């Protein structure tokens, strides 16, 4: 079957976004060799804000920002405090404690976490297949966290695993409440970063970490901010707008974990453990068994997911 031009372009944009996100776990780990988690948050947030402002400038929409902030300043402050501030602070701390392969695999449970949070927050019913998927996914987390030593329950870094799981709660909660956000997506994300940047700056100042880091750290933060948090989000939104099948584009995201593991091995130099592969297979298998059907607005949340 011949694809329509718009559908081909949607696949190209979606695949480009997925390929870019496949690099971020490696970028996180390399950047954290030169920066603390809170420094990475600060400098990456600044780079992301510049990236998003550049997109709006190219679209000639910068004048809309002030009006959007006046209308939605409360939402912008609240969402910005969650994403990027709290979410990435917790996520980067998890990456600083865990091997990249473990942190990024656990992060994939965010979609399941969103389904579970929808029960108390949106009053949705938990289906039997959701419960089964949760069991499969979290057995996968245990396999990864204990490096295959399930019976001993000896975690490679218990606090790091807890932080990685906490990041999925923040991310899933953010996208659940984001379904009620009436702001235009790129404008809304730009306002989130603009509101969160002073929080990141104050947090670094409070902990005495405003010193200028090595250029490698700044380069890594710029890459993370522009790619992970900024420009690629716009690519993904464009793919979603062009496609006739949101599910077909969303399914591209499942290419990311294996590509990410390959890059972690080649770039970061981590030996990929059999327990990571088994745990990731369980997590992805659980998500596939669940057959999650996200609404279009939630599907946008896949944008920053593969860490």
UniProtKB/TrEMBL annotation:
<feature type="transmembrane region" description="Helical">
    <location>
        <begin position="104"/>
        <end position="122"/>
    </location>
</feature>
<feature type="transmembrane region" description="Helical">
    <location>
        <begin position="189"/>
        <end position="208"/>
    </location>
</feature>
<feature type="domain" description="EamA">
    <location>
        <begin position="159"/>
        <end position="288"/>
    </location>
</feature>
<keyword id="KW-0472">Membrane</keyword>
<dbReference type="InterPro" id="IPR000620">
    <property type="entry name" value="EamA_dom"/>
</dbReference>
<dbReference type="GO" id="GO:0016020">
    <property type="term" value="C:membrane"/>
</dbReference>
<feature type="transmembrane region" description="Helical">
    <location>
        <begin position="77"/>
        <end position="98"/>
    </location>
</feature>
<feature type="domain" description="EamA">
    <location>
        <begin position="9"/>
        <end position="145"/>
    </location>
</feature>
<feature type="transmembrane region" description="Helical">
    <location>
        <begin position="249"/>
        <end position="266"/>
    </location>
</feature>
<feature type="transmembrane region" description="Helical">
    <location>
        <begin position="272"/>
        <end position="289"/>
    </location>
</feature>
<keyword id="KW-1133">Transmembrane helix</keyword>
<protein>
    <submittedName>
        <fullName>DMT family transporter</fullName>
    </submittedName>
</protein>
<feature type="transmembrane region" description="Helical">
    <location>
        <begin position="134"/>
        <end position="153"/>
    </location>
</feature>
<feature type="transmembrane region" description="Helical">
    <location>
        <begin position="159"/>
        <end position="177"/>
    </location>
</feature>
<dbReference type="InterPro" id="IPR037185">
    <property type="entry name" value="EmrE-like"/>
</dbReference>
<feature type="transmembrane region" description="Helical">
    <location>
        <begin position="37"/>
        <end position="56"/>
    </location>
</feature>
<dbReference type="Pfam" id="PF00892">
    <property type="entry name" value="EamA"/>
</dbReference>
<feature type="transmembrane region" description="Helical">
    <location>
        <begin position="214"/>
        <end position="237"/>
    </location>
</feature>
<keyword id="KW-0812">Transmembrane</keyword>
């Amino acid at each position: 079957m011949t694809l329509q031009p718009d559908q081909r372009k949607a696949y190209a944009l979606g695949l480009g976004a997925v390929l870019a996100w496949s690099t971020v776990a490696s970028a996180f780990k390399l950047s954290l060799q030169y920066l603390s988690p809170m420094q990475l948050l600060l400098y990456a947030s600044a780079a992301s804000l510049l990236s998003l402002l550049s997109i709006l400038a190219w679209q000639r929409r910068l004048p809309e920002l002030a009006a959007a902030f006046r209308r939605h300043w409360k939402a912008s402050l609240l969402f910005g405090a969650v994403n990027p501030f709290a979410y990435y602070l917790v996520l980067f701390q998890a990456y600083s404690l865990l091997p990249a392969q473990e942190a990024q695999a656990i992060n994939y449970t965010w979609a399941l976490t969103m389904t579970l949070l929808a029960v108390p927050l949106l009053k949705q019913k938990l289906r039997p297949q959701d419960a089964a998927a949760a069991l499969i996914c979290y057995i996968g987390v245990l396999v990864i966290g204990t490096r295959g030593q399930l019976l001993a329950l000896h975690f490679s870094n218990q606090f790091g695993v807890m932080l990685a799981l906490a990041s999925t709660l923040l991310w899933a909660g953010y996208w659940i409440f984001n379904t009620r956000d009436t702001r235009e997506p790129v404008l809304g994300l730009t306002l989130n970063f603009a509101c969160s940047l002073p929080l990141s700056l104050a947090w670094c100042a409070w902990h005495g970490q405003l010193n200028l880091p090595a250029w490698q750290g700044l380069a890594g933060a710029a890459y993370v901010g522009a790619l992970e948090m900024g420009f690629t989000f716009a690519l993904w939104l464009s793919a979603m707008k062009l496609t006739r099948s949101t599910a077909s584009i969303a399914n591209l995201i499942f290419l990311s974990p294996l590509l990410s593991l390959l890059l972690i091995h080649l770039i970061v130099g981590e030996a990929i453990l059999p327990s990571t592969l088994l745990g990731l297979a369980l997590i992805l298998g659980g998500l596939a068994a669940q057959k999650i059907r996200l609404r279009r607005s939630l599907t946008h949340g896949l944008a920053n997911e593969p860490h």
